[in-house]
């Protein structure tokens, strides 16, 4: 996703007949990460090729065990993507046509797609203007007799207000499915103290898309839960509905995590906390260097508690965003927008009947948000260069 955005920005400039400046600060740099771990990854991938256990092999089980332990949950099941993780989680909970599932208007489209796959109807709510996360009051107001589940998204890497949402869910007998696709390793500091995301609701979904904080070398995902029955269902659903080969208990899917990806993820998991800490340090630098520019709004976030935000994305809001993006692009700085079109205004979901004006915060923010370069290997000089360019643009 991110890499394509970089290419698109360049193409637009080429079409305009402008000089394309070399990228000085990419949006993400997966090659820099690979350089650190190439030997370990190479050995692991070779091991899979030698064993030839490509589907649900040894490293899938190893990774599931390690990832569950990392998240502080009993069970993890590797699946083929984050979208499939959400889809199968909803299926395992028995969500079906006629049901409603509440999620937030500013999430990535996959959250809505997964709900649709079950036949249920996505019901959207506007976001908390300070956190960009789910607004519990809005959720309460959106509950009907058809509501079966809530999907809070730990958007940009910051955990949703789980204590408040859990209270609402318990009061209405609703399931909570965490969309943790942007938040691998983030801690939620709530009533029970520090807890990793992934075990905060009934079931959770992770994506291992290459650009995520923990990424495979292709598509991948995982479902985590503390519920043994749900875990067993997920394992059947991802594997043609079978527990014993050729004995199909339900209409399942082919939605498994490849062993090669599990092997890569096992290597990377060891680095994840370090990488997340680096991201938070970069975020802190951005905040310091961009303070006092009235044209931009920084994340309303103090980095006090360890990994309470793991900055999958560093998102500011900017006046004259298009002009700023161009200005940065001309100086070799790649940026992104997550996401430019709110879900309720996407053509694919016009059947939901939403209109412009339904979710004013999400709509306003879609016009203003800008994601700055963010990846663990980012250098201090690069952060200074980005911040300096932004200050220059506004003459500050
Ligand atoms: C990436 C993402 C997904 C989907 O994950 P894929 O692995 O790309 O299918 C779902 N929800 C959110 C919030 C995401 O960022």
Structural write-up:
The chain has 396 residues and is α/β, with parallel strands linked by helices. It has 12 helices and 14 strands. It has helices at residues 2-15, 30-51, 58-71, 82-92, 109-117, 136-142, 162-171, 228-237, 259-290, 321-330, 360-368, 380-393; strands at 75-79, 100-104, 121-125, 147-151, 175-179, 187-190, 193-196, 203-207, 221-225, 242-244, 247-248, 296-297, 314-318, 369-372. Helix 4 crosses helix 8 (228-237) and helix 9 (259-290) crosses helix 12 (380-393). The chain starts with a helix and ends with a helix. Residues 1-8 have low confidence and may be disordered. Bound molecules: pyridoxal-5'-phosphate. Pyridoxal-5'-phosphate is lined by residues 81-83, 107-108, 110-111, 153, 179, 181-182, 207, 209, 219, 221. The site of pyridoxal-5'-phosphate has 15 residues, from helix 4 and helix 5.
Give a quick set of tags describing it.
single chain; 396 residues; globular; disordered N terminus; binds pyridoxal-5'-phosphate
Produce the secondary structure layout:
Elements: H1 2-15, H2 30-51, H3 58-71, E1 75-79, H4 82-92, E2 100-104, H5 109-117, E3 121-125, H6 136-142, E4 147-151, H7 162-171, E5 175-179, E6 187-190, E7 193-196, E8 203-207, E9 221-225, H8 228-237, E10 242-244, E11 247-248, H9 259-290, E12 296-297, E13 314-318, H10 321-330, H11 360-368, E14 369-372, H12 380-393
Parallel strand pairs: 2-3, 2-4, 4-5, 5-8
Antiparallel strand pairs: 1-9, 6-7, 8-9, 10-11, 12-13, 13-14
Helix pairs in contact: 2-9, 3-9, 4-5, 4-8, 9-12
Pyridoxal-5'-phosphate binds next to helix 4 and helix 5.
């Amino acid at each position: 996703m991110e890499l394509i955005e970089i290419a698109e920005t360049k193409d637009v400039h080429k079409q305009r007949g402008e000089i394309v400046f070399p990228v000085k600060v990419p949006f993400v740099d997966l090659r820099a990460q690979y350089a650190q771990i190439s030997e370990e990854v190479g050995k692991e991938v070779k091991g899979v090729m030698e064993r030839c256990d490509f589907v649900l092999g040894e490293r899938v089980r190893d990774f599931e065990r390690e990832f569950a332990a990392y998240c502080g949950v009993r069970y993890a099941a590797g699946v083929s993507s984050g979208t499939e993780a959400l889809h199968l989680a909803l299926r395992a909970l028995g969500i079906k046509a006629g049901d409603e599932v509440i999620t937030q208007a500013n999430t990535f489209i996959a959250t809505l797609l997964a709900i649709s796959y079950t036949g249920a109807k996505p019901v959207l709510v506007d976001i908390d203007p300070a956190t960009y996360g789910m607004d519990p009051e809005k959720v309460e107001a959106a509950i009907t007799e058809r509501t079966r589940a809530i999907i809070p998204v730990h958007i940009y890497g910051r955990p949703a207000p789980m204590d408040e949402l859990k209270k609402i869910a318990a009061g209405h007998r609703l399931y909570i499915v965490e969309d943790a696709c942007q938040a691998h390793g983030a801690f939620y500091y709530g009533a029970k103290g520090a807890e990793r995301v992934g075990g905060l609701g009934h079931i959770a979904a992770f994506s291992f898309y290459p650009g995520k904080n923990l990424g495979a070398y292709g598509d991948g995902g995982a479902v985590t839960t503390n519920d043994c029955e749900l875990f067993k269902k997920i394992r059947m659903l991802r594997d043609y509905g079978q527990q014993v080969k050729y004995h199909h208990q339900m209409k399942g899917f082919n939605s498994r995590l490849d062993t090669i990806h599990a092997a890569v993820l096992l290597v990377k998991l060891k680095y994840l906390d370090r990488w997340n800490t680096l991201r938070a340090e970069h975020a802190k630098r951005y905040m310091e260097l961009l303070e006092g520019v009235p044209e931009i709004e920084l994340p309303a976030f103090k980095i006090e508690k360890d990994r309470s935000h793991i900055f999958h994305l560093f998102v500011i809001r900017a006046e004259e965003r298009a002009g700023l993006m161009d200005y940065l692009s001309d100086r070799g700085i790649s940026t992104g927008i997550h996401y430019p079109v709110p879900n309720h205004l996407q053509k694919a979901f016009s059947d939901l009947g939403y209109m412009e004006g339904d979710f004013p915060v999400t709509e306003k923010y879609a016009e203003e948000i800008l994601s700055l370069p963010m990846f663990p290997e980012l250098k201090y000089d690069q952060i200074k260069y980005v911040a300096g360019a932004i200050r220059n643009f506004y003459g500050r």
